[in-house]
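Sequence only, no structure available. Ideas?
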Amino acid sequence: MSGVPQPITWQLATVSAIRPETANVKTFAFSLPDWQPHMPGQHYDLRLTAADGYQAQRSYSIASPPEQAGGVELSIERLPDGEVSAFMHDTVMVGDRIELRGPIGGYFVWSAVSGGPLLLIAGGSGIVPLMAMLRERAAAGARQPATLLYSSRSRDEAIYFDELAQLAGSAGSSGLTVIHTLTRSQPPGWTGYSRRIDAAMLREVLARTDPNATVFICGPTPLVESAAGSLVDLGVPASRIRTERFGPTGN
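Reply:
I predicted one. Tokens follow.
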């Protein structure tokens, strides 16, 4: 029947590249036989099937912008006792074929045509869907004000650290401000934040952010709930806050 959404089916994607991001995070580029444009913030399901028929399935946010036609990139963190992430990190090679299904999701999404200022808050691998937003923002040449507050354990565990610096630009002409907080260890001469995201930090960040910004928060559940609650207490309307969360990682 015309107008009825079609079910999202599994397809065999080919691993076209593997790029290390940190010691525990790799980005896997996939070529898709049935590629469809996605919105930054959406995800793909990934399914592994063993010879005996056992299956394991996980969901991973898309890291690449929709302008990257023909495939997607998924940045996957190796988790302790994570059977899917361990297989992806230790076994998968370029040329392997993996089952994917997507793109999926319609709430935690943003596109450059939406316009408006942004406040992005991430913890650990929660940066991945927000990076897709920033990459699309750059590809579209958007200049609306955007602020990213990113919490990582250390400089070495901050995913996309160098690319984020490039996107912000030394002169700030991109309209993007990137603010890091390193919660476990800091390199010599570090002048950024060095604690977990708290209300006082958010108050300072809000003072540097457009008051009409739409807020996206992604990361471990405790971080997301704490940040969202603090922002509401600081006067940000709950209707302007969108959240995506996952299990705690210690950030």
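The chain has a mean pLDDT of 93.
Hope that gets you unstuck.
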